[in-house]
Amino acid sequence: MLTINELDELDKRILQQLQKDASLTNHELALRVHASAPTCLRRVKRLTDEGIISRQVALLDASKLGAGLTAIVEITLDHQATEKLVEFEQLVAQEGAVQQCYRVSQGPDFVLVIQVADMAAYHALAHRLFATHANVRNVRSFFSILRSKFETAIAL
């Protein structure tokens, strides 16, 4: 498995370009990173096979698709045994509106990022996921009023 220390400058240039625009053709990528097309193809395949590139996706504008409310939610469970944590993770993994789920330390057990249409949709989701779940002790929700930065790129 490759680590950051095993990536050379070409690997890093390739990853930086793909983080900006993964829809580049191999030829366009090669031009941007100053390498041959066959070299780029081999490198991207290696980076994918090694798991450095985990997947390529399209980022959608939630507000244009009717999902304009972002909630950041802290969840504290009554019981934190491993099986209870995994059970909660499996519950939220099935919910499409939950975009991210983090198990965290020092404070709540989980932090979720949720994208829904509006407050009514959030209340329905909160009832379905939290209020009816016997192990959820505390829910603390924050609602985004402005997203001033959103990046998916990892600094290399």
TrEMBL record:
InterPro entries: AsnC-type_HTH_dom (IPR000485), Dimeric_a/b-barrel (IPR011008), Tscrpt_reg_AsnC-like (IPR019888), Tscrpt_reg_AsnC/Lrp_C (IPR019887), WH-like_DNA-bd_sf (IPR036388), WH_DNA-bd_sf (IPR036390)
GO cellular component, one term: cytosol
Any one GO MF annotation of this record: sequence-specific DNA binding
The keyword tRNA processing is assigned to this record: no
Record key words, sorted: DNA-binding, Transcription, Transcription regulation
One of the GO BP terms on file: response to amino acid
Record flagged with keyword Transcription regulation: yes
Top-level division of the source organism's lineage: Bacteria
Record-annotated HTH asnC-type domain positions: 7-70
PROSITE patterns: HTH_ASNC_2 (PS50956)
Protein name stated in the entry: Lrp/AsnC family leucine-responsive transcriptional regulator
Protein source organism: Undibacterium pigrum
